[in-house]
Design brief:
Elements lengths: L1 E3 L2 H9 L4 H12 L2 E2 L2 E2 L6 E3 L6 H8 L26 E3 L2 E3 L9
Antiparallel strand pairs: 1-4, 2-3, 5-6
Amino acid sequence: MITIYDRADMAYVLARDLDPRLIDLLRRRFAALVTPYGDLTDWTEFIVVEPGDTEADVERELGFSPLVNPIDGSRFGAPTFQPFWDHLISAAGYFEQPPRGGPGC
């Protein structure tokens, strides 16, 4: 798992030998953080889940599992599961799910 908290982490990740599609996607997301209205670079966290990372790893990092509905406890894949996230897209072979906040939000 790659966790990016600030500018230093961004620079480190962009210098790593990672999939060029991921690097391009991250560059675009990082660039979008700087706007005429302000700079959100140090207020935004990125987590890249890699092969081998488990749901427990993701939950430990995020404080919740995106695979479990926090209201009724239903799990992704169950017939009763209703996604609780606001947005999920596929970009450059990666899924992006920007949560609107941490636990309790």
